[in-house]
Design brief:
Length: about 850
Amino acid sequence: MTFSHIKYFFFFSCLVLLNASSAFATHNRAGEITYRKIGQNRFEAKIVTYTKTSAPADRPELEFWWGDGERDTLDRVSIDFNVGTDIQRNTYFGEHIYPGNGSYVLYFLDENRNGGVVNIGGSVNIAFYVETKLVISPVITTNNSPVLLQPPIDDGVINSVFIHNPNAFDPDGDSLSYELAPCKGANGLPIPTYSIPAASVSFSLDAINGDLIWDSPLSIGEYNVAMIIREWRNVPGVGLLNIGYVTRDMQITIWQPIYDPPVISSIADTCVEAGTSLAFTVTATDNGGNETVTLSATGGPFNLSVSPATFTSTPAVTLVTGDFSWITDCAHVRKAPYSVVFKAEDSDPLVQLADLEQMFITVVAPSPKNPNAVPQGNGFVLNWDQSICPQAIGYKIYRRISSSGFIPSNCETGVPAYTGYSLIATVNGVATTTFNDDNNGQGLAQAVTYCYMVTAFFADGAESYASIEFCAKLVRDLPIITNVDVNATDVTNGKIYIAWGKPTDLDFTQTPGPFRYILQRATGTGVFSDVKTYNSLVDTTYNDSLLNTSANQYRYRVEFWNDTPGNVFKIGTTQIATSIFLSSSPGDEKNRLSWNLSVPWINSQFNIYRETTPGIFTQIATSTTNTYIDDSLVNGVEYCYYVESLGAYPDTGLVNPIINKSQILCSTPIDNEAPCPVTITQVANCELLTDSLSWDAPDSCNADTKEYVLYFAPAGSNDFQEVAIIPSATTEYVYTNPISISGCYYIVSRDSNNNESSPSTSVCVETCPTYELPNVFTPDGDGVNDTYHPFLPFRDVRDVDMKIFNRWGALIFETTDPNIDWNGRKENTGEDLPEGVYFYICFVNEQRINTITSRELNGTISLYRGDKK
């Protein structure tokens, strides 16, 4: 008997013994572990298993590992035989105190699974293993696992879509995600014989809603699959964290169809405002079996301690209805929706066919009520009523200029960005119901209508409906700046025209006058200094000169003073307005223009002017953004520009339109732009050691491409080297390498100014390893075939593990050198070995693109010496 025969005999004998010793324990169908926090680092675990009732094996107690090195033997607390044909549900509980923060994997391992599982080869001998991960962290105050409300035992029929949903409810309101996982066995490792159940179309698990869809089963029988339900929590100051998971190992029995399952009418997801009621009717119809249909519902709303939902339904033939009712409460508010799964099941005694319909219900907090804005100085005091939901942790304030008319739809929480509103402040504390908006100390603009909305927010990130829109406008008791207009561009004698509107709503009892303006200027981001003082309300313009408008942007503001003798004080200051500062980034046949400004009025458009003849500028374009590209230009030719803004305040009593100009800027296009990267493909020929490369180059930015540069890095290396320069007239190239073409390639485009594109996406050619061993050699000293080596040349071999044995199994030679070079002598003594047949085992370690793979060769070597001369 050969060694290999002995191995297989031993394996077969062990398998028979294993079958004999474990057959009595083949009973596990499905199971899962959940937990809840019951004290400081103290948790209660609940283990549920579904087993085969007819199996001789039973588990009144179960050994359970807590994940911190401790384990307990848990007693079964309940057993339910009314689950299905030859199925019972077993429930175990245990409590444990953990030593501190950490991640703990709770698990149990039980011998064995029930026999005959279609997609687990030899399931009768495979252990049943399930795990759950618990995270204890200082940033997670409470953490309970999801509760899986739908049993992990389900039925389907061949050639029909099967749907299962675990109906996971997280009592902490954490978000959940779902993913398929392999079923596990001994040592918590994936079962080698496990495979995803075969489908005529697909087998998938929706990561968001947890729908397991098998479209469609091909064969009857029992199948096991596993899924992981992960918990996610957005922790303030930390971010989104995965705080644990539950693994479900479930069993699906596929039957030969007799008739179709019942069908539930479609139900749309919805939102409901906390404090109001949600009620609707669910309908299911029998689909030809003339069976009594039972309609039921499971989900988070039914498991709440405060005002849980109810569902009532009476089984019926042909048509069955059920009534859902839920009086919601602020305690139900959370960001994650509640899942409700409705199940219609027929009454066939052999297999109960069912249909599932899942819906999501989001409970939203009511909007803050009675908001208002009262002008105060250069801002507003905002007030609103306290949220009726006491668990709110604060409020968010949104602002925009002028009304949007936004009214939130049923599931529209917060204030969406499309409304034009921006979040300007967050107020902490449910009892804090006021906010002073002075634009972070910069002041708000006169003559502008500001509108606000307020929402309440919660610890998990949930946000209430938005309040009604409320608007107000500041009293015009300050000057309003309107113009910062560059009239001359120069390094030393630049000029800017500044203008402002005088105040119209003065309270002469508080500010009797006389009055004074002080115009102030700052260069760039520098400090403001006084430019000129005016002692008359009528004087509202100034021509500022001796400026470097070529290089600098200038900021202006106007202080307004009450100069009553004995009562001199500053009434306030206008918002800051800057000059328009134009910049350019030259490119290939183009100038990229951009401009910067900050003004209190609203600019609706910008006109771009270019010098067409000396001293004459012509409008060439209009933009609503702060950028413009002037293209189709001539490289090396200078072009000069300025930008003109058109804007206005909403108040019709001010100048309209407000027109201001930037400085004049000149810019010269230059070819500093690289061509676009190409898209490369390849076809390799291992026999000829050639690689045919081709690529596509975008026409839009490759017009001046001069050449393409090919780079290559051999397999196992990231050291790319230039191997070819290819003229731009061709987009094909055949790369030849007498040693190996395996490796990765990329191409760079280069234009006439030697600008290089970014590298193309690299393409890789897998190795073409060749390594063959002869079966005879003649170490007779005649200079021909005196050493044993592989057929030459060989390729892409890093090293080998070559062992040569005589016919009694003794090792007589070994090497890692791929050339081998055995001279027919015994390795240790150097003595000539006799003619005969020798055996070898050779593991060839072949270089692949990103790894090394090993290939086994074995065979015989005939050694002949012949007549030595």
